[in-house]
Amino acid sequence: MYCPKCDKTVDDSKFEEISEMLSRIGNTLLKNGKCPVCSTDLIKPPVRGDAGST
Length: 54
Ligand SMILES: [Zn+2]
Fold this sequence. Notes:
Layout: E1 2-3, E2 8-9, H1 12-24
Antiparallel strand pairs: 1-2
The structure holds zinc ion (ZN).
Zinc ion (ZN) binds next to loops.
């Protein structure tokens, strides 16, 4: 997932781990699909164009 405001990407493989960790300290924003820093709705990360079109 990607935060357009912070310009940060959260890896899908780390997403659960990080959201779990944050919810343990009372930050459920990431769990709800929002950026834990600025609470902006996270979007899918920009695709780099090699997602199987060849
Ligand atoms: Zn953010």
